[in-house]
Amino acid sequence: MGPAWLWLLGAGMLAYPAHGDKRLGLHQPPRDQLSEAAPAYLKITPTITNFALRLYKQLATETPGNIFFSPVSISSILALLSLGAQDDTATQILEGLGFNLTETPVANIHQGFQSLIHTLDLPSPKLELKVGNSLFLDKQLKPQQQFLDSIKELYGAFAFSANFTDSIKTGRQINDYIKRQTYGQIVDCLQEFNQDTLMILLNYIFFKAKWKHPFNCYRTQKQESFFVNEKITLQIPMMHQKEMHRFLYDVEVACTVLQIEYSGNALTLLILPDPGKMKQVEAALQPEMLRKWSQLLLPSLLDLHLPRFSISGTYTLEEILPQIGLGNIFSLEADFSGITGNLNKTISRVSHKAVVDMSEKGTEAGAASGLLSQPQPLNATSAPQAHFNRPFLLLIWDVTTQSLLFLGRVINPAAG
Q1: What is the CATH topology of the domain spanning 217-306+373-410?
Q2: What pTM, to 2 d.p., does this model score?
Q3: Is the pLDDT confidence value at 46 over 90?
Q4: Tag placement on the chain: N or C end, fewer CB within 10 Å?
Q5: Quick one: three-class SS letters along the chain?
Q6: Domain extents in the chain
């Protein structure tokens, strides 16, 4: 693969799970109905969701346990990288992310990411959401000013000079920087790199929100069974509440879908496959299915049992991205001379780490008739149960931008 010169590093943190109708607006208007006045991010968020599901399915084939990553983090850093690539390589990156460049011009894609990052980063009294990009360049490099200007204007990315010949000290400095930006939640994200490394591209995302309806910690059962599989049963803390939530049971896919709202403009979608049906549900996971569920979810009083857990995912994506269409950016033919003018070597590492902590307060980090459980009246004496005592899927959405911030699978809530 040649000398290591560029690392793409994504770090995602989901911290703290907390009236109004807060549906997940996944229905995308036809492209020709997207007016010029529509927010630019609406031209890219459906593609990010599609990319997220493709990446998830590839990870699921190779990872038997927990999965957790940030689609917004990974897609934005790859789109940023394309600004430093020459035409063919830039096209390969953007098409690998899933963009049709005849329908969505390159300039619109970057404006979409600019709009998305800016909107996600707006201050909110209800939740904390912080997105950022940084570039660490070895002091011997002379980057192109046009590249530095573009990544700052479009992706809010700042460039820092670094001394990669002192790999231990520089690695510690960058890890400390990531730790500060994610309020101590992402630590040691940057694994060992050698003295041939000349550049590191970094993206981080931090999310902290309270549930709209917090769980009462006094109702949490300290020891309750969680069935990892037919052979392994764990005893874990299980949160419990009776509250109004949107949910449905999908007979065809064999799963329960539950939407839990945060007090800010975000929500989590939890998908609980019937016992033994995880692979079936994962196979059905498509943007169209998410849109269908979003439209069919109905409010009901629900007896909810949900594990208190903290899981993380750490990935070397250079081994996985080629299998979903992003292979050429790791070849010797890839051209990133737009970054430094004449340097043209390979990307050696794409690292990504994401962490989720879900607790009582919140998260720190056809015909419809046959598909739905009937909502119970508010004065019902017995509410339907949603008991998350076996593996489930987790999707965290920003409602304003309709963007998928985090996507994961909880197989073992005690794995950390």
Answers
A1: Alpha-1-antitrypsin; domain 1 (2.30.39)
A2: 0.88
A3: yes
A4: C
A5: CCCCCEEEEEEEEEEECCCCCCCCCCCCCCHHHCCCCCCHHHHCHHHHHHHHHHHHHHHHHHCCCCEEECHHHHHHHHHHHHCCCCHHHHHHHHHHHCCCCCCCCHHHHHHHHHHHHHHHCCCCCCEEEEEEEEEEEECCCCCCHHHHHHHHHHHCCEEEEECCCCHHHHHHHHHHHHHHHCCCCCCCCCCCCCCCCCEEEEEEEEEEEEECCCCCHHHCEEEEEEECCCCCEEEEEEEEEEEEEEEEEECCCCEEEEEEEECCCEEEEEEEECCCCHHHHHHHCCHHHHHHHHHHCEEEEEEEEEECEEEEEEEEHHHCHHHHCCCHHHCCCCCCHHHHCCCCCCEEEEEEEEEEEECCCEEECCCCCCCCCCCCCCCCCCCCEEECCCCEEEEEEECCCCEEEEEEEECCCCCC
A6: 6-210+310-358, 217-306+373-410
